[in-house]
Amino acid sequence: MKQRLLLQGERSVRLGSRAFDVLIALVEGAGTLITKDELMARIWPNAIVEPANLTVHVAALRRALGDGRGGNHFLVNVHGRGYRFVAPVCIAQALTAAALPLNNQHNLPVCLTPLIGRSEVINSLAAQFQFHRLITVVGQAGIGKTSVALAAAEVLISNYPDGVWLIDLSPVSTPSLVLTALASALRLAIRSDNPLPSLIAALRNRQMLLVLDNCEHVIGAAADLVSSLLRETRGISILATSREPLRVEGERLRRLSALETPPLSTQINATEALQFAAVQLFVERAAATMNKFDLTDADAASACRICHELDGIPLAIELAAARIDMFGIAGLGARLDDRLRLLTGGRRTSFPRHQTMNEALDWSYQLLGKEEQTVFRRIAIFAAGFTLEAAGAVAGGSDKAEFDAADQVANLAMKSLIAVDMSYGKVRFRLPETTRAFALSLLAENGERDMICRRHADYYRNLLMTAWTNPGGENSAAAWTPEIDNIRAGLNWSFAPAGDLSIAVNLAAASAPLWLEMSLLTECHGWMGKALDLCQSTDQNARREMVLQTAFGLALMFTRGMSSRAHAALTRATELAESLRDLDYQLRALVGLNIFSLRLEDFQGALMISRRSEAIAEGATDPVAISAAACQLSCSLFFLGQINEALTYAKQAHQHNTKEIRRAHIVRSGIDHSIQAHCVVAQVQWLCGLVDQSTRTTQKILIDASAGWHPVSLCFALTWCGCTISLRLGDLDAAERSIAQLKDHADNHALHNYYACGLGFEGLLSVGRGDLAAGERLLCTCLDGLRSAQYEVLHTAFLSNLAEILAMRGHFDAGLAAIDEALNRTERNSGFWWMPEALRLKGEILLLSDQANVRSAEDYFRRSLDLAHHQGALSWELRGALSLGRLHHSRGRNGDACDLLDSVYSRFTEGFDTADLRSAKLLLADWAIR
After folding, report:
1. Element containing residue 834 per DSSP (H, E)
2. Rounded to the nearest 10 degrees, how much is the dihedral formed by the CA atoms of 437, 438, 439, 440?
3. Does 1 have pLDDT greater than 70?
């Protein structure tokens, strides 16, 4: 233990310092339970650490011991308490240095630090030598090829009677010296100008493993040597490392991937983060740099981001962790944009090319041919990967005959400088971010950046403009998702002072459908607004302006509310579409104006616009246009209280719910009209007393909207079904889930109006659970948010609910003023969808006053009942009957109360487990026996 040496037979086992401390503590108490607190106190005295850190080191110890493999058991975990060392322990007298077993059959260096996250690769690599004689480990700079190869070679020492020998080719300056390096490592004398025959003769009957490390800069000579050795000997195996394959017969490739990194999340804790090898490496190297460093929950997200931004490349992670004593985790994360300057300070014992990431990458760059170097620099302009077609257009020569960029991309991928990405179902290529930063610096140094930026922006402008004029192409958001960062980069350059304003305006217009479909609405109105500002001072293009105004108005409306600027944009788009006789864009702009009017509670105005849309759609055969017009009519009629006609149009709109049509709705209007129409169906079903059907419809809508993953459409579904209907049914748990989902999505996508609605629903949920004070506070905040966003369509409903809460809390005058304002708004805007409930709530508030006005309250209840009955709104009618029935009962008119409530209750055929119907049943039973 004094030597801190762990042996398996005669082989030294690598183990980190803290894992060794754990082993010593457990062995000293062999057979007894050592609690986690005792272990942490011993290993980290006078420090507070997360238990996850102990878990990591115990896991490392188990891997080193081979615990659980081959029937070996060393440690037992007593859940929630600690660990026990259960293997037999024999204490023997320590061997003297002279008696320690030695094995001189290799020249492998001692590994002074644990190799993290590579045990599976190492074991697999070693096992492959049972079947293959040549394996080449390939990978990009800093990925850990040498470390993995040396670790695998050490595992194999006992398999080769004549040893395992490292031949480091990194110092070899010319190909002719490769044979000299081999002879030197094997201590063989060279006595001729052509030493290969004598080397082969010396090795012909040997059984050994040769580790040819760093072959890339002498790849031809290394390949010739390996080919000769494999052909002329039987017992020689070769483990090579290189940034590209040797490409000789019999070669098996092992491409080394980056360490696994956690997904980016602000919610991850230290225990979760330390499940990933990249974070484990970061923590281990940081602890070696700074005493008593342990990852905390507060720093876990930052550590994950650092590892993610560094692409899981071990060398980059090690270099970053080495600066933690200077900057801390947060400081490291903030400096990643200047990563090439940050990633310095490697170990003095490392090879010079591993002292900094810049040197490691420059080593690879200098080995490239001129054309490969050119393409390598130029493809750095791609922000999120690229296709071969894109590389050819942006990174190729000015004349295709000059060189083919696609061929150079393939070469760079072969040499591990470019990663091949199949995550989107098609072959794409990308530069790891640290490599990209290096290449961008070279692009600037060579004076090519502006030229390549122009090519890049121009390529994506042309690509988008061609795509939207090709109806047979794949133009969905999913198809364009891999390119969205490239489109952003093109827009950023184009709008910059040194950019090209012509490209900027056209690229913005061509990208408009993408921003709408992906619900990137803040970006949408940002880019469209910039382009429109330029259009006002340059030559006019009516069709392009029409596209920009439409997207700008829709995006601004959904994110910033019903502003005059959004209305002006949609109005201008309508005028341009009419002048161009473009029926498609006429309908797009009218749909936007319809939504605008509905959100301002201008229901009559919305109906007029809907009729205009209907007239346009009637002259078309396009199902997208027909369903969009029907949807807007269904919404307008619903809010006007014409629920049966609204249901007819809603069903008509919902019939056209194919994937293609729904996507077209989102591209054209920024929302899925099928979801909107289906919500009208669910609302009308509830109003008509088809409560169970409404519940099932709501469930289908939420599943459908969640699967579509379009935030505006999902928030609409959650608002009008998930929250509203669940609260009306009295299903508070379901309402709570929908409210949380609504607030989360609205907040993440800057949909301020929907977030305000979420607060209002949360207030109603609080009231349903008996917390009137929280309900009042949340509803007041909600109404402030709705006013700020000019989202009026639910303002009256929430104001009515607040009025009742105020009266229930004894603030009768405030409650009465609020309900009067709500009623005035309802009457002024023809909001008959809400009128029966507003009238009923006015009656309830009148009864809550110190001097209850019974006659007026009864009048409001009767008006509510009559209007609900006229509309066919059985559920509103039931609520009116409950209120008036209670009033009759309080005045001793039990018979009238029973007759009234029963006349409504008996017309229901379903929904008897919901809140209102349960209350009605209980009251009928109670009143019948009095």
Report:
1. none
2. 50
3. no
Is the sign of the CA dihedral 373, 374, 375, 380 positive or negative?
Answer: positive
Torsion region of 554: left, alpha or beta (phi above 0 gives left; psi -120 to 50 gives alpha):
alpha
- Lowest-pLDDT choice from 9-13, 487-491, 790-794: 9-13
- Spatial CA neighbour of 432 closest among 509, 349, 339: 339
Q: How far apart are CA 394 and CA 458, in angstroms?
A: 9
The torsion of the CA quartet 268, 273, 276, 279, rounded to 10 degrees, works out to 120
479 versus 217: which is more confidently predicted?
A: 217
**Alpha-carbon torsion 60, 64, 68, 74, what sign?**
negative
Taking all residues of the chain, what is their mean pLDDT, rounded to a whole number? 86
Predicted local confidence at residue 102, as pLDDT: 36
Q: Is a pLDDT exceeding 50 seen at residue 418?
A: yes
Cα gap 508→530, rounded to integer Å: 9
HSE-up of residue 576 (Cα within 13 Å, Cβ side): 20
310 compared with 333, residue with greater pLDDT: 310
Query: In this structure, are strands 236-242 and 134-138 parallel, antiparallel, or unpaired?
Result: parallel
Alpha helices in 640-751, H assignment, sequence order: 643-655, 659-669, 673-687, 691-708, 711-717, 724-729, 732-748
d(CA 607, CA 632) in angstroms, rounded, equals 8
What size, in residues, is the chain? 930
Q: Indicate the burial class of 608 (C-beta count within 10 angstroms; 0-12, 13-18, 19 or more).
A: middle
In the predicted structure, residue 863 carries a pLDDT above the cut 90: yes
The predicted pLDDT at position 189 comes to 76
Q: Tell me the C-alpha distance between 219 and 138, whole Å.
A: 12
DSSP 8-class letter at 94: P
User: Do the Cβ atoms of 357 and 142 come closer than 8 Å?
Assistant: yes
Burial 133-151 (b: 16+ CB within 10 A, else e): bbbbbbbbbbbbbbbbbbb
Q: How far apart are CA 786 and CA 771, in angstroms?
A: 22
Q: What angle do CA 147, 149, 155 make, to 5 degrees?
A: 105
Of 270-274, 800-804, 896-900, the least confident: 270-274
Long-range CB contact pairs, 618-622, < 8 A, 24+: 619/583, 620/583, 622/584
**CA angle in degrees (0–180, nearest 5) for 735-739-742:** 140
Strand partners, 7: 12
Q: Which residue has the tokens 């494999």?
A: 230
Residue pair 927/898 in contact (Cβ under 8 Å)? The answer is yes
| Sign, CA torsion 407/408/409/415 | positive
